Structure formats: structure tokens, C-alpha cells
Amino acid sequence: MTWVFVILLAVAAFLLVVFVFKAPRGGREAIAAALALGIAGYAAQGTPAQPGAPKDGAEGRSGDMGAFFAEARATFSSSGLPPSDRWVVIADGLARHGEYGDAAEVLRGAIGNDPPGPPANDPDTRERRSEAWLSLGNALVAHAEGQLTPASLYAYRRAGQADPDAAGPPFFLGLALAQSGRLGEGRAMWADLLARAPKEAKWRPVLEQQLIRLDAFIAAQNGSPARPPAGAANSVPAPAPQ
Q1: Which residues contact 112 (CB under 8 A, 6 or more apart)?
Q2: Domain chopping of the chain, boundaries
Q3: Taking residues 108-130, what's their average pLDDT?
Q4: Whole-model pTM?
Q5: In whole angstroms, how large is the CA radius of gyration of the chain?
Q6: Is 47 left (phi over 0), alpha (psi -120 to 50) or beta?
Q7: 220 — alpha (psi -120 to 50), left (phi > 0) or beta?
Q8: pLDDT: which is higher, 239 or 133
Q9: Sign of CA pseudo-dihedral 233, 237, 241, 242
Q10: Averaged pLDDT, 170-179
Q11: Does 110 score more than 80 pLDDT?
């Protein structure tokens, strides 16, 4: 019975290509040969009598890291406002659902027309470009399960070049370095950012607390456990370094 359906499907496909899609007369023989070859391949390798073995759908990736990145990026943004670039907004939505690869593809469209070179003169343009590159770096890190890759490192560097005064690129690059096991490099980047932070910067207390957490983790790794001061708040809880 299966063969009847296979043959009928091949005939239907041939008629569809010839009469609906108007295949030229000279190509009809090739189409028929391709269908015949497909039937022959099925006859040689197909096992229609074999029972199926349905499996549960693959478990989707968590969007927790994507949600964290979006919220922390807003904390460290220059304006403190939600992203204005529509591609960044779309990518944030994808990342919050764990679709980091798709988010990165969307962000490549946002930065596709951003040529390398000196920062733009317009502050809004600088922030928009930096935010797009920063979002791409975060999406690539999340896609790599927290690890810093050459592509994400390049994105973070381009984010810093687009807006040298932005706090987001050094913060997230420091976090990615720590997550990748390069604790000393990550700490040095955070310490330098904190040293340059304006006293009135709204993100300064957040960075201070994250640096305390990282120091405690490094101390524990070195065999001398240390804890953050009692009652220290974590405004933006960064994932623990691996």
C-alpha cells in the first residue's frame, strides 16, 4: 500500500511542475528522471514497515541569560532609556526566549551598515551603534553558553570603539572574561571601569557589588574563602563565573 502512495505522490509532483509551474518541454524528461531516481532510492533504502520511534521535542534553551543581559545593558546604558533600535528590541525578545542564534542574526542586520572608523559625532548615533554591537556580543556569549569567543570579543571591542565613554562594553567584556575562567583579566577590566566611573553614575553601586562578588569568588578559588559584606545588595545579579 505504501508503494501506491509513493507512486501517486511522484505523479502528482510531476503534474504540478509541468502544468502549474509550466516547466519547459525540454526539461520534462529531466524532471521525470529525477522523480524516478528518488523512487529507486526509496526502494533501495526505505523501510516503510519499520515501526516509528517518536521522541519528545528537544528542550528549548533557557532565556534567563538573555533576560539578564537585556536588563543589565539597560542599567549600564548611557541614557538609561530602553533601546531605540528596532533590531535590538527584536533581538532582546528572541534572547529572552533562549533563541540566541536568531538574535545574533537579527543584530548582524542592525550593524551591517556600520563601517569601522572613529566614533560618530552625534551622541545618539554613538549610543545606538554601541548598543547594537554590545547586544551582538551578549547574544554570541549566550549562544556559546557563557564563553567568550573571538566573534563576541570583536563585537565588544566594536561596541567600545563606537562609544568610548559607554560603561556597558567593559562591564560585559569583563563578565565574559570571568565566565571563561580569565578571572584576573575580568577583574582588572571591572576595576579600571570603577576607577573611571563618575561618582554620580547610577551604575557605580552595581559595579561595586559585582566586583565584591568577583573578589570573593577569586578568594575562594585560591583557597581563602571570603564573603561579601553582610547585607550587600545585588541590583543586577551576574551569573557566577564558571
Answers
A1: none
A2: 2-40, 64-221
A3: 72
A4: 0.66
A5: 27
A6: beta
A7: alpha
A8: 133
A9: positive
A10: 94
A11: no
- Locate 168 and state its grid cell: 556597558
* Helices marked H in 115-167: 123-143, 150-162
For the purposes of burial, counting CB atoms within 10 Å of the CB of 107, is it exposed (0-12), middle (13-18) or buried (19 or more)?
Answer: buried
Residue 187 has pLDDT above 50, yes or no: yes
* Contact criterion met (CB below 8 Å) for 172 and 137: yes
Give, in degrees to the nearest 5, the angle at Cα 206 between 149 and 110: 45
Query: For the domain 64-221, what is the CATH code?
Result: 1.25.40.10
How would you classify residue 238: left for phi > 0, otherwise alpha for psi between -120 and 50, otherwise beta?
beta
Contact 95, 37 (CB under 8 A): no
44-84 residue pLDDT tens: 555 555 555 444 443 456 778 888 898 888 888 876 555 66
Q: Which amino acid is at 121?
A: N
Helices (H), the chain: 2-15, 25-45, 64-75, 86-96, 100-111, 123-143, 150-162, 168-179, 183-196, 204-221
Please calculate the CA angle 85-194-111 and round it to the nearest 5 degrees: 20
Which residues make Cβ contacts (< 8 Å) with residue 91, sequence separation at least 6?
103, 104, 106, 107, 110, 135, 139
> Distance between CA atoms of 180 and 193, rounded to whole angstroms?
19
